[in-house]
Amino acid sequence: MDEILVPIFVCGTLFVGMPWVILHYITKWKQAPKITNEDEKLLDELYSLARRLEDRLGTVERIVAADHPDWRSGMPLAEPTTPYDPTRRN
């Protein structure tokens, strides 16, 4: 009896179970919310704002470094970095 049930179970899993799982997740993927034009515009504005803030922070760091060259080493959470370079991109 087991010799009959095992192939039936394997075939059922392959031909019914696997397609059901694949189709289920395809359906979920298609129902997932998409990014709207408003969302894209907001992301662009936030990116632009982040870039401007990064440039301002770099300017402040250069001014402070000019007045106090070792200011960064006195900070408790200071990261060892090179001087600010506005052309450098991460």
How would you describe the shape? elongated
Helix content: 55-70%
Q: How can the largest sheet be summarized?
A: none
Radius of gyration: 29 Å
Describe the 3D structure:
It is a single chain. The protein is mainly alpha-helical and 90 residues long. The protein folds into 2 domains: 1-32; 36-90. Helix content is 68%, strand content 0%. The protein has 2 helices and no strands. It has helices at 2-31, 37-67. The mean pLDDT is 82.
Show the helix and strand layout:
Elements: H1 2-31, H2 37-67
Quick overview of this protein structure:
About 70% of the residues lie in helices and about 0% in strands. The chain is mostly helical and about 90 residues long.
List its traits.
single chain; 90 residues; mainly alpha; 2 domains; 2 helices; 68% helix
